Structure formats: structure tokens, C-alpha cells
Amino acid sequence: MANTKQAVPDTLPLLRDRIDSIDSQIQALINERAQCAQKVAEVKLAEQGGDAVVFYRPEREAQVLRRVMERNEGPLGNEEMAKIFRQIMSSCLALEKPMRIAFLGPEGTFTQQAALKHFGKSIVSAPMAAIDEVFREVESGAANYGVVPVENSTEGVVNHTLDSFRDSRLKICGEVEVRIHHHLLISPHSNADEVTHIYSHQQSLAQCRAWLDRYWPHAERVAVSSNAEAARLAAEAGKNGRAVAAIAGEVAGEMYGLMTVSANIEDRPDNTTRFLIVGNQEVPASGKDKTSLLISAKNEPGALYHLLEAFERHGVDMTRLETRPSLMSRWGYIFYIDFVGHYQEEGCQAAIAELRDRASEVKVLGSYPVAVL
Ligand SMILES: C=C(O[C@@H]1C=C(C(=O)O)C=C[C@H]1O)C(=O)O
């Protein structure tokens, strides 16, 4: 496009004319892109046919976003630019049929934010009451994909999510990280000085533990099913003349019309939660991938050492190790291991083959693109 490099005019009317002209070019190009995406869908339908056709391709989307960031010259920042393209792809894909995304609800949870960050806004939201319901919704085909929290940088692993993988045939298709800011919120009808109870999800109460000990040592902490539910209860209490506070994020607070008493009360300023995208699809390599495994170790001396040694010898970079009780035998364990690379890469395949010899079960939960945004 020749005229994007023209000198920038310096009067308001000329600048606005230029912006109008650029906008109409951008708009025409976005629609041209959308037509190409529609054509891609037709080709996929012709090649794969009927129910088997997979329109959404996580590896391709990750590559598109990475390239946007690599070639970006500013003044817009890389992330800002990638977010715009995230939404363009979301709109293009929804032309075919918006994807139905199940997530740990209700509306307003951080998991919903994670879903929107990962898929863009052109999706149909399907809030579920519990993590295992998210899995079931995707397994039954009622939702295309599911989004569940898996670990928090302050509080560690989300056990429900790890445990759900034991009996599920779903694959991990992606990951997304969300910076978590918590606020102390009350109804505008309540008086902050009268607050006796603070509601939130167990994880959020834990992420704000030191702050609560310091500023609200006498308020009773009540764990509820989600932060959004806590926000709803605080709004409800205000209407009934009671002063109940909630710890929740901005979105949940706005949804229930709450006021902020104290903002950003999380104990650690880098408080981040990682979420997984689960689906029925195996994702091909994107060039920058991660793999998650579930391993049942043999109950014998050195079992864990022998597993880890296989990674070391094949030069595979392990990034995470979690342990859960196996439930099959007392003091038996299941390990969840993440490593860098796609399971089809040579080194990874060799390491996995060896693990299969050394463990009683190795399940590849999925290889998926490293989060871009
Ligand atoms: C266009 C495609 O299909 C979908 C839409 C994409 C896009 O808008 O760029 C990318 C990947 C797929 O989710 C494709 O596979 O290339």
C-alpha cells in the first residue's frame, strides 16, 4: 500500500481526511481477508467433509499472531497490535459459525476473561457451574472447546482441573495467561465500616491472605463457588440492608454494580493465572509448542528419578511437575509433567517412548502452542 508511507499532514482537517481514507482502506482489506477465510472454510469442507471438518486451527492462529508481533514497527505496541488481529481472526472465524466455548462460570469470572482473550469476542459463551461440567460439555459435543484454570502463580495448582484429565479423552489445545487483579467491593447501598463478612472464591481469598490479615483481621472470610457469585451476593446483601464485601475482579464488580473499597489487593503484584483450552482435536506443531503428560509411576524406589532422567538424556526441557494421589493405591502417585516441544518432534518422541517403558501409564494430554498473548 503506497500511501501509508506518505508524510503525515499537520492540520486537523487534513489529518482527519487522512484517517478517513486509511479507515476505508483498512475496512476493505479486512473484508477481503474475511472472504479469504470464508474460502478456507469451503476448502476445508470439501477436503474433510461433513462433521469431521475443523475450522478452528490453534497452531495457525498462533503463527499469525506471532508474525504480527515480529513484523510490528510501532508506534502501537506488539501486544496491542496482536489483540487487534486476535479480534479480526475471531470475527472471520465466526462468519462460518461462532464457536461455543464452555468455561468455569458464571458470567464475569476470570475464566471467561481468559476465554475472550484466547478466542476473541466473537464466540458464544457457555458458563458452567463446575470444572468437570466444562469437560463434559466439550466431551458431549455441546461446546466446541472448554476453558479451565490450571495454576496460579501465588496459590499453585488447581487440583480439580488436573484430576479431570484422569478420565477424560479431551486434548489440551492451547494455554492462556491472565494477570489477576483483585478488588474489595461492596454494594453502593452498603457501608464499608460495617462490613463483617468477606466473600470470595477460595483461591482469591488465598491470593489476598496477607492483605486481609493486615486490614480486615476481624472480618469473617467466606469461601463461595466463584468470585462472580461473591459479587452477586454482595450486591444482594446491599439490597437487604446488610454490609457484605466481595473480593472479585473488575468485570464481576461492574456486572453487579459494586463500588471499589480497595483496588489491587492481591498479595503479589505479578499474580497470574494460567488457563488451558480443552477440545477434541490434536493440534499440529506451530513451531513454538509445549506438551503436557499424565504419568502413573510404578510404586518402586527411584521411580520419579528414572522418569526425569529420560528428559535430561534426550535434552527435553521440563517446565513443570505436579504430583497428585493416584487413587488406585494408597501412596501411589500420578505426575503431571509439562515440557517444551511438540510430542511429534524427535527428541520428545524418544523421551516419551522411554517413559512408556518406565511408567505404568503415560497419557499425552496434548501438544499446543505456547501462549502468544
Ligand atoms: C483461515 C483459517 O481458518 C481459521 C481462521 C484463521 C484466520 O482468520 O486467520 C486462522 C486459523 C483458523 O482458525 C485457516 O486455517 O487458515
Automatic annotation (TrEMBL):
<dbReference type="GO" id="GO:0009094">
    <property type="term" value="P:L-phenylalanine biosynthetic process"/>
</dbReference>
<dbReference type="Pfam" id="PF00800">
    <property type="entry name" value="PDT"/>
</dbReference>
<dbReference type="InterPro" id="IPR018528">
    <property type="entry name" value="Preph_deHydtase_CS"/>
</dbReference>
<protein>
    <recommendedName>
        <fullName>Bifunctional chorismate mutase/prephenate dehydratase</fullName>
        <ecNumber>4.2.1.51</ecNumber>
        <ecNumber>5.4.99.5</ecNumber>
    </recommendedName>
</protein>
<keyword id="KW-0456">Lyase</keyword>
<dbReference type="GO" id="GO:0046417">
    <property type="term" value="P:chorismate metabolic process"/>
</dbReference>
<dbReference type="GO" id="GO:0004664">
    <property type="term" value="F:prephenate dehydratase activity"/>
</dbReference>
<feature type="domain" description="Chorismate mutase">
    <location>
        <begin position="6"/>
        <end position="100"/>
    </location>
</feature>
<feature type="site" description="Essential for prephenate dehydratase activity">
    <location>
        <position position="273"/>
    </location>
</feature>
<comment type="function">
    <text>Catalyzes the Claisen rearrangement of chorismate to prephenate and the decarboxylation/dehydration of prephenate to phenylpyruvate.</text>
</comment>
<keyword id="KW-0057">Aromatic amino acid biosynthesis</keyword>
<dbReference type="InterPro" id="IPR045865">
    <property type="entry name" value="ACT-like_dom_sf"/>
</dbReference>
<dbReference type="InterPro" id="IPR008242">
    <property type="entry name" value="Chor_mutase/pphenate_deHydtase"/>
</dbReference>
<dbReference type="InterPro" id="IPR002912">
    <property type="entry name" value="ACT_dom"/>
</dbReference>
<dbReference type="GO" id="GO:0005737">
    <property type="term" value="C:cytoplasm"/>
</dbReference>
<feature type="domain" description="Prephenate dehydratase">
    <location>
        <begin position="100"/>
        <end position="280"/>
    </location>
</feature>
<keyword id="KW-0963">Cytoplasm</keyword>
<dbReference type="InterPro" id="IPR036979">
    <property type="entry name" value="CM_dom_sf"/>
</dbReference>
<dbReference type="InterPro" id="IPR010957">
    <property type="entry name" value="G/b/e-P-prot_chorismate_mutase"/>
</dbReference>
<dbReference type="InterPro" id="IPR036263">
    <property type="entry name" value="Chorismate_II_sf"/>
</dbReference>
<keyword id="KW-0028">Amino-acid biosynthesis</keyword>
<dbReference type="GO" id="GO:0004106">
    <property type="term" value="F:chorismate mutase activity"/>
</dbReference>
<dbReference type="InterPro" id="IPR002701">
    <property type="entry name" value="CM_II_prokaryot"/>
</dbReference>
<dbReference type="Pfam" id="PF01817">
    <property type="entry name" value="CM_2"/>
</dbReference>
<keyword id="KW-0511">Multifunctional enzyme</keyword>
<comment type="pathway">
    <text>Amino-acid biosynthesis; L-phenylalanine biosynthesis; phenylpyruvate from prephenate: step 1/1.</text>
</comment>
<keyword id="KW-0413">Isomerase</keyword>
<comment type="pathway">
    <text>Metabolic intermediate biosynthesis; prephenate biosynthesis; prephenate from chorismate: step 1/1.</text>
</comment>
<dbReference type="InterPro" id="IPR001086">
    <property type="entry name" value="Preph_deHydtase"/>
</dbReference>
<keyword id="KW-0584">Phenylalanine biosynthesis</keyword>
<feature type="domain" description="ACT">
    <location>
        <begin position="292"/>
        <end position="369"/>
    </location>
</feature>
